[in-house]
Amino acid sequence: MIWERWRRGARPADELAPLKPFEDLLEEAPVLAMMVDARQQVVAANAAARAYFSIVAERLPAGLVEVTREGAIVDLLRAGRPTGEARLAHRQRVVTSLLVPGPAAGETLIFLTDVTEQRRLETVRQEFVANLSHELKTPITSLRLAVESLQDEPPADSRRRFAARALKETDHLAAIVDNLRQLAEIEGGSTQVRLESVELAPLVQESLERVHADRPLDLEVEPGLRLLTDRAKLAQAIGNLVDNAAKFSPPGSPVEVRAGARDQEIRITIRDHGPGISPEHWERVFERFYKIDPARTRELPGSGLGLAITKHLVLLLGGRVWTEAAPEGGQIFGIELPATHRTLVAP
Q1: What angle do CA 76, 81, 83 make, to 5 degrees?
Q2: Mean pLDDT confidence for 184-198
Q3: Which of 187, 205, 228 is the endpoint of a domain?
Q4: Rounded to 5°, angle at Cα 93 from 87 and 94
Q5: Are residue 281 and residue 231 in the same domain, yes or no?
Q6: pTM exceeds cut of 0.70
Q7: Domain with 130 in it
Q8: Do residue 157 and residue 180 come from a single domain?
């Protein structure tokens, strides 16, 4: 048996026969492998299983639950099916299993493969398709209604209204397609970063001017800060966050933009005065089409991709993006990027 050395661990090495090539291969294989006897005692585990479950070989044999601390693996064994899948409660991981009869009566060789990342990606893909279908359905339906109304040859003022609606929905669809294309280019590694030394204050001001936010802007930028970055991409990221803050701020309330140095980093924060976001949503708000309140977000303009693009742009520039609750209400979205140097700006 491939783990005979462990069963005879007390014997001198020169008395042990060398392992066969196949047995050595299984010991070093990346798949998790454990031999379990008829009493559900783990009698051996390969290197991958020992590392995954923190198994001490010298303490074997030991109970399957004691060794793995996962009752779900016992359930896989008791089910008796050759293949299966289980969620490990202690490790918060997902594994698939393959059960093979062992060399002795009652023994079973359990092979486990961690598929947590694959399942996460499958879920992300399914959610993306569902969300994209939903995002496209609304403007397409509205566009169809406008075109059908125009076919009835309505009065001139109605024609103008229907034509304006059709144009608006067409622009919405074009924005979704353009943003999806940009995301695909960033994720595919085809987006080029053109680094240059940029003064922060004019860049932030330029970003705000592009947004045309319908909320007052309260801007404070520490003078004399420069960083090495892609000017256009950072301006887009800042603009997206300001646009998002303006959407969720009550009319007349300001969007606060702050930028300054912190340790060896440049920090840019955008705060709204809206209802805020519950902490359980903070990580997911940067996902494509993620909606905290679907009923409310349907009323707001946008493609649903702005925060996702912002996250990818900031990561591309070597920084990080995050969100947190503002101390006195509202929500803060922030960008941190490595600083290059600080200079005094001439008046």
Answers
A1: 80
A2: 85
A3: 187
A4: 50
A5: yes
A6: no
A7: 119-187
A8: yes
